[in-house]
């Protein structure tokens, strides 16, 4: 059925406007040149629209109520499943086969360790006050992975100066103009990634790094 776009208005405005027209046509149709049949058809359409609008509002309310009821029932079911799962998984007498037969996933006896990935795009930006801003890409490493930052005065002997889960750090206390090297890698409790490509600050020649004015 093609939609009539002659009157572009909300359902409420349409019903109000049609009510005025219907009231006028029911008493004065002839004065406007409107036939009795046309006025009667308008009255029928107006009444049916009002009824359909009321039914739709009621159905919409019932729909939202049903959705809320379903959501509450879902949460209750999940809570009960979780309670049963905790009991089963904490009971050492329950075998993996029994767990599977009950509809749950068997215990993960051997967890697959997260293999850290080498951080990418490592950068070290020095400032005139001895502060250095470090940043790198996570390269897919999850939040639980720890990043370790090391410093070297000569590019061969290294010492750890920072560790954390963030992919950036700002450290102070470096001497402006004194060459320093830095590198970063990711680690878990037992596994380590490769080191990033080292970055130099306050260098000269091929090692020269622009000096920022302020942090």
Topology:
Layout: H1 11-28, H2 36-90, H3 96-101, E1 120-126, E2 132-137, E3 146-152, E4 159-164, E5 168-171, E6 180-187, E7 199-201
Antiparallel strand pairs: 1-2, 2-5, 3-4, 3-6, 6-7
Helix pairs in contact: 1-2
The CATH class of the largest domain: Mainly Beta
- For the termini, the CA-CA separation is 67 Å
Count of DSSP-assigned helices: 3
Strand-and-helix sequence, N→C? Answer: HHHEEEEEEE
What fold name goes in the CATH topology slot of the largest domain?
Immunoglobulin-like
**What is the CATH homologous superfamily assignment of the largest domain?**
Immunoglobulins
The percentage helix is 25-40%
Number of domains: 2
The overall pLDDT average reads 87
Question: Beta-strand level of the residues, as a percent range?
Answer: 15-25%
In terms of structural class, how would the helical and strand content be classed? alpha+beta
- In terms of per-residue confidence, which ranges show pLDDT below 50 for 5 or more consecutive residues? 205-215
How many strands, what sense, and barrel or not for the largest sheet?
4 strands, antiparallel
CATH architecture field of the largest domain: Sandwich
* Total beta strand runs: 7
What is the molecular shape? elongated
Describe this structure in words.
This protein has 215 residues and is of the alpha+beta class. Helix content is 37%, strand content 19%. The protein is built from three helices and seven strands. Strands 4-3-6-7 form a four-stranded antiparallel sheet, with no helix packed on it. Strands 1-2-5 form a three-stranded antiparallel sheet, with no helix packed on it. A hairpin with a 6-residue loop joins strand 3 and strand 4.
């Amino acid at each position: 059925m093609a939609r009539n776009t002659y009157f572009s208005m909300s359902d409420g405005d349409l019903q109000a406007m049609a009510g005025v027209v219907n009231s006028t046509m029911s008493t004065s149709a002839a004065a406007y040149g409107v036939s009795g049949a046309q006025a009667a058809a308008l009255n029928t359409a107006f009444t049916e629209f009002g009824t359909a609008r009321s039914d739709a509002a009621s159905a919409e309310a019932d729909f939202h109520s049903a959705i809320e009821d379903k959501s509450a029932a879902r949460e209750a079911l999940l809570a009960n499943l979780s309670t049963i799962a905790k009991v089963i998984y904490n009971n050492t007498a329950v075998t993996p086969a029994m767990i599977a037969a009950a509809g749950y996933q068997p215990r993960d006896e051997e967890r697959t360790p997260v293999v850290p990935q080498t951080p990418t795009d490592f950068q070290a930006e020095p400032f005139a006050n001895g502060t250095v801003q470090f940043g790198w890409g996570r390269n897919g490493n999850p939040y639980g992975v720890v990043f370790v930052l090391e410093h070297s005065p000569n590019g061969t002997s290294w010492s750890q100066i920072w560790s954390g889960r963030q992919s950036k750090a700002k450290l102070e206390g470096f001497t402006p103009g004194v060459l320093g090297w830095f590198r970063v890698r990711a680690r878990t409790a037992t596994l380590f990634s490769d080191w990033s490509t080292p970055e130099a600050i306050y260098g000269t020649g091929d090692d020269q790094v622009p000096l920022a004015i302020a942090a």
